[in-house]
Structures are given as structure tokens and as C-alpha cells.
């Protein structure tokens, strides 16, 4: 009985020690409409209907850091630094999906559409603009600004 209680206490402590995620980041690649509804979905994005893969290629689990800045249009932009899994996924999609598009969603909002026109192997994904001050506040809770 005591052993079961100890295991239960350890399990509760582990679950409560896990960090809460405040923001979401998802990057979906453009899909072929003939892939069907199991693998792809159609959404009205940026003034037209696009087909994207249902499973994101990159998510907040792939991000290790973030640098933000104020864009010329008054919104914010960001440079997301990826972990090894994210770096490899970005490198692979930049080779395999060249000529296609990558759709980035932050906090469940479409932020930008990126043309895949070259290989990206540095593990960084750049969002030029479109983030709100509320987005930046939530993103910084998950990835605090690095001190130099």
C-alpha cells in the first residue's frame, strides 16, 4: 500500500512539474487536393482557398528560442530557433517541397504564407510580420528573451 502511495505521489509531482504551454506554433505544408480528406484539408487563407496537410511539419515542440522585433507595418515579426528535430524537418521540407508553400499559424491564427524557394538548413524560421502584441507576450512566456 505504501509503495502504491509513493508511486502515486511521484506521478502527481511529475505531472504538476511539467511546464504549461501558453502559445501554439504550427507550420503546415501545402498539400495536393487529391490526397483526400484524411491527409489534407482545404481552408480559406490569405484571400483564396488552399489545401494543407492536416499534420503540421513543425510545432511548438520544435522551438527552442525566439527573437522578436517590430515590423514596419506596426505588427511584430519573429525568428524562431528550432531544436534538432525541427531543424531536420525544416531542412527536409525545404528540399522535398521546393516550389511549394508553408503556412504558419501562431495561436491558431494564420500568420504568413512562405514560398519554399531554397534549402534551409540553419534551423531558423523567419516570420516577417503579422504577430500582435498579445501573440508576442504569450510567445515570450514560453521562450523568454535570451540574455546576452
* Total E-strand runs: 9
Task: Give the DSSP E fraction (strand runs of 2 or more residues).
Answer: 35-45%
- Computed over alpha carbons, the radius of gyration is 18 Å
* CATH class category: Alpha Beta
Overall form? globular
Helix content: 25-40%
By DSSP (H or I, 4+ residues per run), the number of helices equals: 3
H-E string: HEEEEEEHEEEH
Low-confidence stretches: 4-11, 13-17
Question: In CATH terms, what is the fold-level topology?
Answer: Gyrase A, domain 2
State the secondary-structure class: alpha+beta
How do the strands of the widest beta sheet line up side by side? 4-1-7-8
Using the 3D structure, state the CATH architecture.
2-Layer Sandwich
Overall number of structural domains: 1
Q: How far apart are the first and last residues' alpha carbons, in Å? A: 51 Å
Average pLDDT score: 88
Could you describe the 3D structure shown?
By secondary structure, this protein is an alpha+beta fold. The protein has a single domain, classed as Gyrase A, domain 2, CATH 3.30.1360. It has three helices and nine strands. The strands form three sheets. The protein has a four-stranded antiparallel beta sheet with strand order 4-1-7-8. A three-stranded antiparallel beta sheet has the order 5-6-9. A two-stranded antiparallel ribbon has the order 2-3. Strand 5 and strand 6 form a beta hairpin. The longest helix is centred in the N-terminal third of the chain and has 16 residues. The N and C termini lie far apart (51 Å). About 9% of the residues have low confidence.
Amino acid at each position: 500500500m505504501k509503495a502504491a502511495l509513493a508511486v502515486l505521489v511521484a506521478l502527481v509531482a511529475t505531472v504538476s512539474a511539467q511546464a504549461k504551454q501558453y502559445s501554439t506554433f504550427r507550420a503546415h505544408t501545402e498539400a495536393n487536393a487529391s490526397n483526400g480528406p484524411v491527409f489534407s484539408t482545404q481552408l480559406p487563407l490569405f484571400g483564396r482557398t488552399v489545401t494543407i496537410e492536416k499534420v503540421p511539419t513543425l510545432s511548438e515542440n520544435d522551438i527552442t528560442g525566439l527573437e522578436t522585433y517590430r515590423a514596419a507595418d506596426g505588427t511584430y515579426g519573429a525568428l524562431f530557433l528550432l531544436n534538432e528535430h525541427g531543424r531536420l524537418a525544416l531542412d527536409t521540407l525545404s528540399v522535398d517541397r521546393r516550389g511549394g508553400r508553408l503556412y504558419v499559424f501562431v495561436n491558431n491564427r494564420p500568420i504568413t504564407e512562405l514560398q519554399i524557394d531554397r534549402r534551409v538548413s540553419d534551423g531558423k524560421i523567419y516570420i516577417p510580420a503579422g504577430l500582435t502584441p498579445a501573440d508576442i507576450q504569450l510567445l515570450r512566456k514560453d521562450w523568454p528573451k535570451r540574455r546576452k
